[in-house]
Amino acid sequence: MRKFDYNDFALGILTPQIVNLISAIHEHKGKQELFIEAKPDILSAMLELAKIQSTGASNRIEGIFTSDNRLNKLVKEKVEPKNRNEQEIAGYREVLNTIHENYEYIPITPNMILQLHRDLYSFSATSIGGHWKNSNNVIEEIDESGEHRVRFQPVSAFETPMAMEHLCECFNKALNEDKFDSLLLIPMFTLDFLCIHPFNDGNGRMSRLLMLLLLYRSGYIVGKYISLEMIIEKSKETYYESLGDCSLDWHEAKNRYNSFVEYSLGIVLNAYKDFSGRVEHLKHLKMSKPDRIKNIFLNRVTKISKSDIAALCPDISISTIETTLLALTKENFIKKLGSGRSTSYIRTEN
Questions:
Q1: pLDDT tens digits along 259-309
Q2: Where in the sequence is the domain holding 326, given as residue range(s)?
Q3: Is the same domain home to 223 and 339?
Q4: Are 132 and 198 in contact (CB under 8 A)?
Q5: How far apart are CA 261 and CA 130, in angstroms?
Q6: Whole-model pTM above 0.85?
Q7: 194 and 270 share a domain?
Q8: Whether 171 contacts 6, CB under 8 Å
Q9: Domain-ending residue, one of 258, 281, 304
Q10: Is 25 among the domain residues?
């Protein structure tokens, strides 16, 4: 069975690029508490929005969809799930809430991972929740012609319980020894979890939930306010490419973690930058709501969507945003691009 020696592997991936990413994240983490104390009411709205975005994005990555309206109501527990997709979305919401509220008390053990997986399927009639896979599985990809190809053969069902025990033991040991930054170890654990692929279903979603949990436990709580899952969804191709690169020769313990570590650190850093930008925007709270929306366009040369504005200004209602956008369009201050869900706006050249 594959051995996990995080100290050995970590030493080999401390490239200048990865060191720079870790340093940049540390710098942002140092300002984290100041940001959180800035405007508790606004940050509460950001937290609720991030929950919706994270739940929607992580499920969409796996092909699990519902309407934006239903997603919003499911995450806010205003409706009951009405089909299998919504049952899985509701399950993700439950685990995400558990991690948000109790991360300090959730150890990284096989039993705890099984409990979280059980809760992921708590709304489902299926009995797979909370059990390791009972048959061998494969990770497939579909080419342009629709042909299925095995990209990776995970650990067998028989070896999975032992592999998960060993994975958690080695990760916790490396973390406790404190020789390497947790930011380096967390993506390595995530990749190894995905290569074991311990469940019949839900491996991708569980990997993202566990990454969030591990970041929170290490003090990096930006994922509470900025959806890491949505950033991953927007860079899904790179996400899968880095997983593919780093799973080569995994069974022989000859794989390299570099590209997935770089990708994961980039996700965390982008979230912190987004968080900083949104907190910076809070300086303008004394302005009227329409002026705050106008100010967003004054400080941006790229296009922006209605949902982007709602994320930047969680205290401003959608109806106020729509009214302001219509007024700014009539004034020829901005112009509308696209239609339907792809609608965006950009400042006009004056």
A1: 999 999 999 999 999 998 877 776 666 788 999 999 999 888 899 999 889
A2: 287-347
A3: no
A4: yes
A5: 28
A6: yes
A7: yes
A8: yes
A9: 281
A10: yes
